[in-house]
C-alpha cells in the first residue's frame, strides 16, 4: 500500500456555511490595541470550494506529505475540475492503489513525489494504470 491513503468524506457539498471574519490580520505577537476590528461575512463553502459541483473531501492517512502541510487525519479539499499539472498535489490511483502525492511531469516520465524525505519517489512506468482523481486545493488541519 502507498504511504498515504485517502477516503471520501463528502461529495457535492451544496449548502452555504457563512460566518463572520475580521477584516484585519491576527497578530501572533503583541496585539495592537489601536487596530480597528471590523467584521464582514464570508461564505466558507464558496471560499474553500469555489467549484462545488466538482469538489469532494478526503481524509489523509499517513505522513508522506507533511512537507506540503498535509498531516495524518487532515481533511483535503479536492477539485476534479482543475487540470492536473506538474507541481500540483493530487489524489491519484496507481495500479489500483489510492494515494496523495505531488505530481511531477517532465518530457519522458511521471513521478508521484512524497513531501517527506523518509519516503521514496514513486516512478510511474509508462504502461501503468495511473488515474488522477483531482487536485488538492486546501488541507484542513485541526489545531490541538
Automatic annotation (TrEMBL):
From the Swiss-Prot or TrEMBL record, what is one GO molecular function term?
Answer: DNA binding
Q: From which organism does this entry originate?
A: Citricoccus muralis
Question: Family per UniProt?
Answer: Belongs to the peptidase S24 family.
Q: Which residues form a coiled coil?
A: none
A single GO BP term for this record reads:
SOS response
- Would you tell me the protein name for this molecule? SOS response UmuD protein
Entry superkingdom: Bacteria
Q: SUPFAM superfamilies this protein is in?
A: LexA/Signal peptidase (SSF51306)
Keyword terms, alphabetized? Autocatalytic cleavage, DNA damage, DNA repair, Hydrolase, SOS response
Domain (Peptidase S24/S26A/S26B/S26C) ranges: 26-136
Amino acid at each position: 500500500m502507498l504511504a498515504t491513503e485517502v477516503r471520501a468524506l463528502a461529495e457535492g457539498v451544496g449548502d452555504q456555511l457563512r460566518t463572520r471574519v475580521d477584516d484585519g490580520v491576527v497578530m501572533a505577537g503583541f496585539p495592537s490595541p489601536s487596530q480597528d476590528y471590523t467584521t464582514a461575512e464570508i461564505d466558507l463553502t464558496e471560499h474553500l470550494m469555489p467549484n462545488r459541483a466538482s469538489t469532494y473531501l478526503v481524509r489523509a492517512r499517513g505522513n508522506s506529505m507533511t512537507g506540503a502541510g498535509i498531516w495524518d487525519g487532515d481533511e483535503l479539499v479536492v477539485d476534479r475540475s482543475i487540470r492536473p499539472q506538474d507541481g500540483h498535489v493530487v489524489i491519484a490511483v496507481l495500479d489500483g492503489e489510492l494515494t496523495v502525492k505531488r505530481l511531477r511531469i517532465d518530457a519522458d516520465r511521471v513521478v508521484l513525489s512524497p513531501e517527506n524525505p523518509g519516503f521514496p519517489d514513486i516512478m510511474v512506468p509508462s504502461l501503468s494504470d495511473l488515474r488522477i482523481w483531482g487536485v488538492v486545493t486546501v488541507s484542513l488541519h485541526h489545531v490541538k
